[in-house]
Amino acid sequence: MVLWSKEQDKPSDMSSGAIEAKKDGAPPAYHHANGTVHPIILTDSPEELRPEAGDYELTEVTSFSDRTEPENERSEMVVIDCRANAKGQREEDALLENASQSNESDDTSTDQSPVPSAPLKETSFSIGLQVVFPFLLAGFGTVAAGMVLDIVQHWTVFTKVTEVFILVPALLGLKGNLEMTLASRLSTAANIGLMDTPKDMWKMIMGNLALIQVQATVVGFLASVAAVIFGWIPEGHFKIGHAVLLCASSVATAFIASLLLGLIMIGVIIGSRKVGINPDNVATPIAASLGDLITLALLAGISTGLYEQLEHNDYANPLVCAFFVALTPIWVLIARRIPSTREVLYSGWEPVIIAMAISSIGGLILDKTVSNPNFAGMAVFTPVINGVGGNLVAVQASRISTYLHMNGMPMVEPNPTPQKCPTPCTTFFSSSVNSRSARVLFLLVAPGHLVFLYTINSMQGGHTTLTYVFIAFYLAAALLQVLILLYLADWMVHWMWGRGMDPDNFSIPYLTALGDLLGTGFLALCFHILWLIGDRDADVGD
């Protein structure tokens, strides 16, 4: 056995065999037929480390480069297990390749730890300036979606097949499950330099587009299953025609909306980098601004068209389902070819599916509330309060994720190490850049909602008069929703990071789904309280 000691100028030979020294005086790499590396710390007693005969096989060495190290440093030894097999050979190749790459960039030091990038230097004013305009744009998009929902809630398909309301938060939540996650992944990749060359950029684009098409098809199908179950349990009867209609409408809407929004997101992120704007601040709000409107309009149009076909063509709805499901293997093959999306394709389903289930619970609340004529005015405000909360928390989660990526690689503790369970004070009142952005985003809630409420009132939308009592309850619900979401974002992103999960893929679906559930629940509670205290009007805007 051969030992390399940091306290010695040369290796100590315990048995026949040797090692091959790395260049520039770095510790040598032992290699044999297997390539499995076992680091061992030397102790004062060499007998403790003496191997059994035949356990190791080493090659002969002739010379070693001289090294001088402080005497108080620990001695280290690398031992190579000689179990020869094909898997070991592959591990050896990967080991030597990684060692070679790590040494090429450092000729003077043996410290191979990654040097973290400098954190983003942004003031509260610069954060607010970059966020406010996309935030308002996204808000007006949710207002338009609310106006559309306020109109289509009276359409035949929504009154005859009320389970379509359950699909609304789940499909609108796709912007958080898929598009915002896509925007966060690409924003992080752009910020850390993974999209600097055209080749790398196109690989990221193609892989991520194929990935979200697979996810959209699966999530759309599962959302229809959830809608059928949630609609069947309370009523106790099941209609196969309505179930197929929900499936076809959901899958088609999810597929088309995700393709359109994915292309828009890619353009926004590339454009942001070219003009020097942080994509984290603009990509996710713009995804939401168009996401709600496009998705809701597609859902209303597709479901209405397919509902009309129920009486004339029994095969239209099943053929629509079969067509979009048949395309799934093609997208899977494309996504598997790109390394950056292959892992997400296999491991990124849990947050998307759980988020869809959470949003469907919010859809059940919406279905049972809006179908009551006394609470018909809730429809126009639901996309607004859900959209604003989801937009703001997505921006914060994306920023924290980028910050952690720029201070350390995934599954490595970032530097500085974040607090495992932050308190509300550290989330909102510390001096860190993430706390500063949390304060800015929270301060945007009340002014933004006042602008959106005024816009709805000016367009004579909804079925509720904007009294001071209603505005007070509405703003209280919105502020509480965003306060909870921003704190959860701070905790969840760091919690996932500490467990080796990429927050770009896992955090935003959960957070936006919770935003849908909290927003819908708080808004329904507001309308019930207003009804109890006598603030009742359901005919405004008719």
UniProtKB/TrEMBL annotation:
Query: How is it placed in the membrane, per its record?
Result: Multi-pass membrane protein
Q: A Pfam family name for this chain?
A: MgtE
Q: Where is the SLC41A/MgtE integral membrane domain?
A: 168-302, 382-525
Biased-composition ranges for Basic and acidic residues? 1-12, 66-76
Bilayer-crossing residues are: 127-149, 209-234, 240-270, 282-303, 315-334, 346-366, 438-456, 468-488, 508-533
One annotated GO molecular function: inorganic cation transmembrane transporter activity
Q: Which SUPFAM superfamilies has this protein been placed in?
A: MgtE membrane domain-like
Q: Name one GO biological process term.
A: metal ion transport
Give its localization. Membrane
What GO CC terms are in its UniProt record? plasma membrane
Protein name per the record: Solute carrier family 41 member
